Amino acid sequence: MTSMLSRIIGEIANVADPTLRLATAVDKSSLASARKALKKGADPNHRDSEGRTLLMVAAFNRNLDLVKLLAEAGADLNVVSEFGNTAMDVASETGDTDIIFYLLGHGAERAEKITAGRAASRPEAAPDSTPAPADPADRPPPSETRPEPVETADTDGRDDSNRATTPPADAAASDSADERIQAAESRAAAEERLRAEIAGRRRAEADLEALRKRDDGAETDQAGLLEAEIEARKAVEKELAAQRDEVEALTKEFEQQLDKELAEFETAETELADQRDRFRDMASSYREQLEQETEQRQKLEDELETLKRKRALAAKSKMAPARKNKGTINPALVLAMFALAIGVAWVLTIDGVPFLSQFTQMPETDDTPLAPSDEPDENIAEAQRILTYLGYKPGPADGVPGNRTRAALRAFQADVGLAQTGEVNQTVLARLKAAAHRQRSR
Length: 442
Known about the structure:
- The chain has 14 helices and no strands.
- Among the domains are: about 1-120, Serine Threonine Protein Phosphatase 5, Tetratricopeptide repeat (Alpha Horseshoe); about 365-440, Orthogonal Bundle (Muramoyl-pentapeptide Carboxypeptidase, domain 1), CATH 1.10.101.10.
- It is mainly alpha-helical.
């Protein structure tokens, strides 16, 4: 195709300049340049020496836009080149279905169909009127009259009797017979060649007709297949469009549902955050109040411990002042303890904080050890478990207060400001539960 284009350019080298620019634009597949050249008067039907057109070049380059431009500019779609090709044949060789459909829609045809149509419209050939060569027997006999021999003389006047003499009339007759024989032989050979050419042409026409019929059938089948494929593609596109609409509707519905759920979730999250803040404020207030009550209770317990010691000393010494002090208790102290008990009971019965009850059980009388030192006890085991939870390492929770348990208790009592006795009583157990509660609520 490059050599074909070179021949086209060579053919139009002496043509007007717009046609040369049009050929160059078609070669480079430049639609804008081709449109400018056509506006300036370029010939869209220019052909090279072998009859190929610029439309064939555009079809070979598979450029549908250039094919449309040349066709709209007046290019002949059914030009047959010397090689027996049309623009439709070139498009069929490249396999570009878009160009094929466009050419078919504008009346383009294959070269074989065009050639068959021209042969059918051509008149019957006239019978061969070439005269048959004459029979050598019919030719007239050579003349028997012979001219006299002519003597030739030497230029210097001498008689030359040895010089040969030629009879002119007999030589002319002999030459005429040879020419007639050669002409007859040439004519016979020409007739033989003509008969062979006619037979070959008839065979070629028969083969061409068979090929035309086969191509017509193949073209019909291909057109049917293309139509079926187009219909199937349309059905698939219709189904895809329906599925796309369904997906879009489902997507929109899902987005609306998601927006609704997100709004509800944000509302619930806001309410939960408000409740959490209120609960934290309440818990902080209860914790502060509990700490204040615990400190007051500790002070009262310290005072009771002092009174108990004084009473024990009075009992040992059996001193009268001691017995007198033993029977008299400070009324203010009794009232303070009674008020403290009422406050603790009020805290423990507040609605909304029932969980504080298991950590705020206070002793009602004294802080004596809950069990002998060598006997297992559930309260001591509970204290050991709480100490382990708080990280004091009291050892196994076996209910027996060993050395490790006492060391852990003394460490805890030192941290909370209690007397470092290393023993478990109601006060220590209550402080352990309160500390465990604070640890869990963090």
